[in-house]
Amino acid sequence: MDRIQLLTSVLDSTFDKESWYAPLKDGMEGITAEQARWKPPGEDVKSVWENVNHLIYYKERLVAKLDGREWTQHLSGDENFQLTEQSGEDEEWRKVVERAVTVHLRLRKKLSEMTVEELDQQSLEAELLDIFLHDAYHTGQIIQVRKMQGSWPSRR
């Protein structure tokens, strides 16, 4: 397995290929917009929707960089949790999930088409690993929120 294949494998395991921890896609699926917006009372915790917004933002920024496009939507870490409006509409939540899937697939395609030489020239390995770790961290938060609200399926 070369470095590109290894990075692609890790990208997939953080998004939709369960290994020994649940991927982001599992954390987003099977809930309503209201569940995605839910926060525990009295807690300073981000909702599932806010966490997904945050992850989309950084992946879209990286894909823009890989495409050679200028990134113009400069949001702070706090602002990008509000990337999309958290309506109570299931259709809007579905669009957010689709946007997360789309940016994952775009990043995966860019990475799989890259050569090891291009990876080295652009010094992307550390940035990609940061994205993967960031996704895993926030996926854990998403799952914890879902467990708190009772929407995470039991695996007994």
Indicate the mean pLDDT: 93
Q: What fraction, in percent, of the residue positions are helical?
A: 55-70%
Amino-to-carboxy terminus distance: 34 Å
Strand-residue fraction?
A: under 5%
Order of helices and strands: HHHHHHH
Number of strands: 0
Largest sheet: none
Low-confidence stretches: none
Alpha-beta classification: mainly alpha
Characterise this structure.
The chain is mainly alpha-helical. The protein is about 65% helix and about 0% strand. The protein has helices at about 5-15, 25-30, 35, 50-65, 90-115, 115-120, 125-150. The chain is globular, with a radius of gyration of 16 Å.
Topology:
Blueprint: H1 3-15, H2 24-28, H3 33-37, H4 48-67, H5 90-113, H6 116-121, H7 125-149
Helix pairs in contact: 1-5, 1-7, 4-5, 4-7
Summarize this, please?
This protein is mainly alpha-helical and 156 residues long. The protein contains seven helices and no strands.
